[in-house]
């Protein structure tokens, strides 16, 4: 790179380029696989969803009517649908906060472990390999009001656990299940980020007399802020889009709609209820929301991130 | 929607791989997992062994909803099976798909199979007939809700198995007074407490003969009788005489653990209860609300039927018709009934089970058939046929949960359920126009 005869070398490279890479299609060829994947797995289904959201159609596709925005109109006059917006935002914020903060604490400790570090790490990463429905089933067993171990213990404190009837408890349960599942992923990124911080910085802090907690807040936390930002985006997308399996396994959106978040309603109306138009309209709204949210995060939050 | 496309591709692939045999193959998609899945395989294998021309291939496609969704997706990709098992609430959706289904009665006649509807239990087949009486799909696994009771607990509390709702209230109170933590619970609450409560007392759930006479139907289950019964149950909840244990069969452990002394749910739980309950249990007919009717009408079924899908070769339909004849023969039906706890679909199968001494050895197992054949079904008691009914049941679940939690009164809950349900009916009516 920065060697003598730089100008000559550059000219040569430029000539070589002209000789070997003068075909303009090459760069396109190189990005083509990526473009193809995006087109087939994102753009095409997304377009289909937008198109479907303008239709009222029977399940078999035998009778189709183009209705413009009627599916959307129907949704926005549905009080229950409107209520699920607030619920979804609460759910997503809670899931992101709980899973990220627990992962941060765990990573902070795992980073300091000397003996058996691999074992800790492996165990902490494990839950990520579990499918959402199974993760849900696990929590269902633990919290089953009749058979579960936790309601049994809570009973000793005189606390009556019945998430079949108590909406707040049901919400807490799906939040815990969804957050628990994501902790492993966040942990992995936080640990990697912490391990990439040069030891000398931490040591300098220690020499200046900063205790571990102080070092964490003034040195580690700001230095891993890019990771926090990245995880915030990922966790929001996770909570918005990928949690229907957990809700399905744990509460089916009940009791009395207390845990019906937007993505669960998309799944339920489309795959269980076979109302394809209504479900597509909801997924379009969800898509717009997430795009909007990501833009906000990049415009306002990213400024606070120190790379 | 991306999922749906993927799904189409994978089902198409799965089908493409299994069509390279000389025999004429008949694809049968079903939703029977576990032990019942093995029984389905046995039925197909036994049929295949009786002849050489046709081979029935049963394929497990997941639960009821997944199986139905899979068949519909396959139909849209023109890769659908010949026969698919669909649960009772999917009936309106299937029936509305005129070009997609091949009515079973027509199929049997076209294929020249002898088919006598009068052999079948009226309460079972009436659910799946057109208003003109044509049978649309072949009943396969049907059950009906009954009252399960903990015989030991009732005896300890000094009460008899209940016959009326007044008995139920008294028995529940006696059980709780005797130290039980719960008197009564039930599952599948829309099916048990709205649909069957109405049929049992000869009340309509909706207009247009419960939807049988047209898709322009509206719900009427917010009537005084249903509301007053639900209000009384909610009142029982205050003293733990009634405990809500979740949707579908989620409340089963409440009964089998010995917490609740009475439990209303499907007769098909016989196997599970027998396996799990450590006490003497029994089943009796659904309780009668003497303020509503003097005598019970008949209960309605739940479960699934087999639908033939259109668009295959005549030769294949011939084999399918032969298979359906085999499936509904007395031997196969009696075996299926005795193994699974589902009700037999023909009189012959019920009589065969009787003569084999099954009901004597297993007391109570004939309650379901007795309930179903108590009277000739009326327009209020032959079943229900509403579009989008899967979602309507969700709506009913949600509103009932609000009632049990004390957030709404019975009248408010049912009024809202009817209003939301009617919106879903209108949407369905539009979609099948």
From TrEMBL, chain B:
<protein>
    <recommendedName>
        <fullName>sn-glycerol-3-phosphate-binding periplasmic protein UgpB</fullName>
    </recommendedName>
</protein>
<keyword id="KW-0813">Transport</keyword>
<comment type="subunit">
    <text>The complex is composed of two ATP-binding proteins (UgpC), two transmembrane proteins (UgpA and UgpE) and a solute-binding protein (UgpB).</text>
</comment>
<feature type="signal peptide">
    <location>
        <begin position="1"/>
        <end position="22"/>
    </location>
</feature>
<comment type="similarity">
    <text>Belongs to the bacterial solute-binding protein 1 family.</text>
</comment>
<comment type="function">
    <text>Part of the ABC transporter complex UgpBAEC involved in sn-glycerol-3-phosphate (G3P) import. Binds G3P.</text>
</comment>
<keyword id="KW-0732">Signal</keyword>
<keyword id="KW-0574">Periplasm</keyword>
<dbReference type="InterPro" id="IPR050490">
    <property type="entry name" value="Bact_solute-bd_prot1"/>
</dbReference>
<dbReference type="InterPro" id="IPR006059">
    <property type="entry name" value="SBP"/>
</dbReference>
<dbReference type="Pfam" id="PF13416">
    <property type="entry name" value="SBP_bac_8"/>
</dbReference>
């Amino acid at each position: 790179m920065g060697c003598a005869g730089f100008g000559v070398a550059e000219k040569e490279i430029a000539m070589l380029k002209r000789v070997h890479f003068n075909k303009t299609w090459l760069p396109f060829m190189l990005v083509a696989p990526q473009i193809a994947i995006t087109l087939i797995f994102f753009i095409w289904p997304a377009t289909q969803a937008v198109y479907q959201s303008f239709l009222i159609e029977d399940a078999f596709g035998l009778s189709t009517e183009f209705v413009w925005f009627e599916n959307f109109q129907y949704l926005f006059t549905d009080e229950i649908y409107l209520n699920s917006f607030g619920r979804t935002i609460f759910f997503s914020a809670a899931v992101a906060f709980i899973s990220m903060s627990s992962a941060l604490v765990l990573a902070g400790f795992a980073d300091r472990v000397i003996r058996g570090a691999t074992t800790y790490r492996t165990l902490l990463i494990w839950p990520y390999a579990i499918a959402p429905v199974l993760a849900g089933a696990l929590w269902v067993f633990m919290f089953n009001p009749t058979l579960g171990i936790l309601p049994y213990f809570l009973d000793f404190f005189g606390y009556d656990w019945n998430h079949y009837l108590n909406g707040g408890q049901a919400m807490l349960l799906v939040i815990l299940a969804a957050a628990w599942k994501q902790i492993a992923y966040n942990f992995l990124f936080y640990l990697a980020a912490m391990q990439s911080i040069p030891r000398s910085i931490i040591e300098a802090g220690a020499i200046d007399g900063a205790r571990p907690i102080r070092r964490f807040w003034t040195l580690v936390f700001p230095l891993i802020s890019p990771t926090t930002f990245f995880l915030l985006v990922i966790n929001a997308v996770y909570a918005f889009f990928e949690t229907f399996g957990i809700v399905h396994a744990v509460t089916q959106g009940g009791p009395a709609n207390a845990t019906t978040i937007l993505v669960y309603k998309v799944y339920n109306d489309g795959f269980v209820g076979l109302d394809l138009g209504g479900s597509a309209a909801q997924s379009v709204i969800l898509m717009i929301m997430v795009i909007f949210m990501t833009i906000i995060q990049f415009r306002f939050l990213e400024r606070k991130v120190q790379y | 929607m991306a999922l749906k496309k993927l799904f189409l591709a994978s089902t198409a692939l799965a089908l493409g791989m299994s069509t390279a045999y000389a025999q004429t193959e008949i694809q049968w998609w079903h939703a029977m997992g576990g032990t019942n899945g093995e029984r389905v395989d046995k039925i197909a294998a036994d049929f295949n062994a009786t002849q050489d021309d046709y081979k029935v291939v049963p394929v497990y496609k997941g639960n009821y909803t997944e199986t139905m969704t899979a068949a519909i997706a396959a139909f849209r990709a023109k890769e659908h099976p010949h026969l698919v098992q669909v649960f009772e609430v999917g009936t309106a959706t299937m029936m509305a798909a005129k070009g997609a289904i091949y009515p079973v009665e027509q199929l049997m006649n076209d294929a020249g199979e002898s088919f006598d509807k009068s052999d079948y239990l009226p309460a079972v087949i009436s659910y799946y007939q057109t208003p003109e009486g044509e049978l649309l799909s072949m009943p396969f696994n049907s059950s009906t809700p009954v009252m399960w009771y903990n015989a030991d607990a009732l005896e300890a509390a000094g009460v008899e198995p209940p016959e009326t709702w007044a008995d139920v209230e008294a028995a529940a109170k006696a059980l709780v007074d005797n130290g039980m933590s719960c008197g009564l619970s039930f599952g599948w609450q829309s099916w048990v407490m709205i649909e069957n409560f109405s049929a049992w007392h000869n009340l309509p759930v909706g207009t247009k003969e419960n939807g049988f006479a047209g898709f322009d139907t509206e719900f009427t289950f917010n009537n005084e009788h249903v509301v007053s019964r639900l209000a009384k149950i909610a009142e029982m909840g205050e003293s733990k005489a009634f405990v809500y244990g979740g949707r579908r069969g989620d409340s089963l452990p409440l009964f089998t653990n010995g917490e609740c002394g009475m439990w209303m749910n499907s007769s098909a739980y016989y196997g599970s209860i027998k396996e799990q309950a450590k006490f003497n249990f029994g089943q009796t007919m659904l309780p009668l609300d003497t303020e509503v009717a003097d005598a019970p009408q008949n209960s309605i079924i739940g479960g699934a039927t087999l639908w033939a899908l259109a668009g295959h070769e005549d030769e294949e339909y011939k084999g399918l018709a032969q298979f359906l004849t085999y499936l509904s023969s007395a031997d196969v039906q009696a075996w299926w009934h005795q193994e699974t706890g589902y009700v037999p679909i023909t009189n012959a199968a019920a009589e065969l089970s009787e003569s084999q001494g099954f009901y004597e050895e297993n007391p109570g197992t004939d309650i379901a058939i007795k309930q179903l054949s108590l009277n000739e079904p009326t327009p209020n008691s032959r079943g229900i046929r509403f579009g989008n009914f899967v979602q309507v049941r969700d709506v009913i679940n949600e509103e009932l949960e609000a009632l049990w939690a004390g957030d709404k009164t019975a009248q408010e809950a049912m009024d809202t359920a009817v209003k939301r349900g009617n919106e879903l009916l209108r949407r369905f009516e539009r979609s099948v126009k």
